[in-house]
Amino acid sequence: xxxxxxxxxxxxxxxxxxxxxxxxxxxxxxxxxxxxxxxxxxxxxxxxxxxxxxxxxxxxxxxxxxxxxxxxxxxxxxxxxxxxxxxxxxxxxxxxxxxxxxxxxxxxxxxxxxxxxxxxxxxxxxxxxxxxxxxxxxxxxxxxxxxxxxxxxx
Amino acid sequence: xxxxxxxxxxxxxxxxxxxxxxxxxxxxxxxxxxxxxxxxxxxxxxxxxxxxxxxxxxxxxxxxxxxxx
Lengths: 154, 69
Description:
The complex is a heterodimer. Chain A has a domain at 14-101. Helices cover 22% and strands 34% of the residues of chain A. Chain A contains three helices and seven strands. Chain A has helices at residues 14-24, 93-97, 102-119, and strands at 3-9, 27-29, 61-64, 71-77, 80-84, 122-134, 140-152. Chain A starts with a strand and ends with a strand. Chain B is of the alpha+beta class. Chain B contains three helices and three strands, in the order ββααβα. Chain B has a two-stranded antiparallel sheet with strand order 1-2. In chain B, strand 1 (3-9) and strand 2 (14-19) form a beta hairpin. Chain B is elongated and about 50 Å long. Strand 7 (140-152) of chain A pairs antiparallel with strand 1 of chain B, so a sheet runs across the interface.
């Protein structure tokens, strides 16, 4: 291994986000302008960066997640795409998509890698695996992961 | 064989690794993908990276000394 880069994931490919929803069995709602949430800002957590209270509940597309009554809003602002969602427990999203939306992020990163690799002429193999990760006070843990290997096509 | 390996954990944290690329070429080999996925937070060069770099310097030095290469 020559080098290892740690990436701060950004959503740059809406096609990959749609594919990620398909992979997880979520429903992509093209052009839906609102998403279901608690409906009122309580102020118990910081507002997502760059958003105001009146922005909440509004989106360009939405994602519906089986088993959750709340939805995820997809918003692109100043060229940056953000997922807005209410993690209040009664909405059911956090239990399905994971804390901080980890499962959706994992599926998105997988699809974004596959699509970018295909465009660049790489062949991709995908494998579910355990990865060693530092997890706060728990120290090094083995967690569910996906490993993609990219090789130049022959 | 040259490979780019992408590992994504259950929190969506992404690591991009390169394998089999010669010297500094490994850094540029995966840059296109890193830019597609987001912003690079940290780059760790492994012992293989430095071993390859030293190997290249030795070859260049030999070439300059004996008039070959």
